[in-house]
Amino acid sequence: MSETVVKIENLVKRYKELIALDHFNLEIKEGEVFGLLGPNGSGKTTAINCLLSLLEFDKGNIEIFGEKMTPENYKVKREIGIIMQNVAVFDELTVYENIDYFCGLYISDKETRKKYVDEAIAFAGLESFTKFYPKKLSGGLLRRLNIACGIAHKPKLIILDEPTVAVDPQSRNRILEGIQSLNKNGATIIYTSHYMEEVEQICTRIAIIDKGKNVAIGTKDELKKMIRNTETITIEALRVEESVKKQINSLEHVYETVHSDGKLVIRCSGGKHNLIKILGILSENDTPFGRVYSEQPTLNDVFLEITGKALRDGSDENNKEEN
Fold this sequence. Notes:
Elements: E1 4-15, E2 18-29, E3 33-37, H1 44-51, E4 59-64, E5 67-68, H2 74-77, E6 80-83, H3 95-104, H4 110-124, H5 139-151, E7 157-161, H6 169-184, E8 188-192, H7 196-202, E9 205-210, E10 213-218, H8 220-224, E11 231-236, H9 242-249, E12 254-260, E13 263-268, H10 274-284, E14 292-295, H11 299-307, H12 319-322
Parallel strand pairs: 3-8, 3-9, 6-7, 7-8
Antiparallel strand pairs: 1-2, 1-4, 4-5, 9-10, 11-13, 11-14, 12-13
């Protein structure tokens, strides 16, 4: 049975009248890639800052690797790698010097440190850029440098907060593949993102935070079973009579029918052969239509139904709540 790496119990954090974390609980097992999702101002970044002892909290308990986390617990802190959304490197240092500096905060032996730095450079694909200064790097390469600095000392727990914001597809794929590689090599990962497809691709379990509480947790398949939507059918149709929409909406497993921008979107809850029945109604009423799509629920559907909010890709957290 996997050991518990992170255990948060009844965590409360207030900013005057605002309750950022409201008896928040979370448990992460060794070897997980754990996705942490939440709308702006939900408490994600506050939870991470409390977890790292960067922020005092009002009530609760935090344990990492079975030890109580405190600002002075440097033994535990040495086992943590942090890659935050805002790139944190020194403009005055080259790529190699930056990675060497951050690795040196944890690894004092020069020979070991050189080996670790070289491995971090290779991991991030920065071999051709070791003498470059950060200002000369593209956004994607800068993100990769940021990650290399955070993982060079080979931490057992790695926290990645929006690591792929505003990067090109090639760098994004490299970053995601790198995260999976780190996990295969033994690291436990906490991953936050506004890109749902990334979370679906790499996370073994996912928690959704809203208003400072953990409102849902499970694998992506378990989360999808929590919502009403089991199938979304989209049909390209320029004109759909109101009577036709009513007929479709009266089907046993259809709970929403919307026609907008030349598309008829039907959301279903359970049942089989929904698409066949819907196309039959359109044909009977001589309603012309084009392409047809049938999709299973996504994490975005789960998120929207559970929180009533949509994630904004690449958004910063609400500054008032998180600072």
